[in-house]
């Protein structure tokens, strides 16, 4: 029942034309390419013998529609993984230019209904959301947990300006960097197909933003808006800050003597344990 339920869920999420076959195996060796290929060939041969001409034509039409969608999405193979080269619609292109010119402090994009384009879905100005106009200082530790984006923000690709003072500069030079967040909630409120689309389009979207904004965009994936804090962005822009904290914490742990426990009196309980 679990297998049948999982298969039905995947077919509903990705579409039955994309998942046309399921295989049951009893041995790890059955996962070899040769055996899987033989199974597919055998099933397709048996299926064609009982299919009518109408069914074959319908199947061919479905395959053509899928191939057309794949071609429209500029699907390419790189490094053994599939990546969609997402397309920005005309309005998104215009809004990115306005964002670069400083008209907005934050913009958001979502996937189109047919998953072939990334479309513009909203913006924030400094008048709408003055929090992003603040220049953050890493030394002000009381502000590290400040959440940077409004709580009503919906899932999508969010690009914003992060104004701050360079924590690695002795003079604390003021800087402004572009940050992109792929926000997909972890509570499974989005369909699996939409979550998959945001994931596979992420690298392509980052490349688009780097090209359109003439600047290197730092990015990360977030499952909750609570993760988009001042401290998280500082660690993203300056990884050495996070490394310094890790080294300090490790040194402190090494100074603490190991806890020792007496050997248990019962038989078969094992040797003395040490916990750090």
TrEMBL record:
GO MF term list: actin filament binding; actin monomer binding
Signal peptide: none
Predominant place of localization: cytoplasm
Keyword Repeat in record: yes
Annotated localization: Cytoplasm, Cytoskeleton
Span of domain ADF-H: 1-41
Gene3D superfamilies attached to this UniProt entry: Severin
Database matches in InterPro entries: ADF-H, ADF-H/Gelsolin-like_dom_sf, Twinfilin
GO cellular component assignments: actin filament; cytoplasm
Keywords recorded for this protein, A-Z: Actin-binding, Cytoplasm, Cytoskeleton, Repeat
One GO term (biological process): actin filament depolymerization
Domain of life: Eukaryota
Quaternary structure, from the entry: Interacts with G-actin; ADP-actin form.
Similarity comment: family membership: Belongs to the actin-binding proteins ADF family. Twinfilin subfamily.
Name this protein carries in UniProt: Twinfilin-2-B-like protein
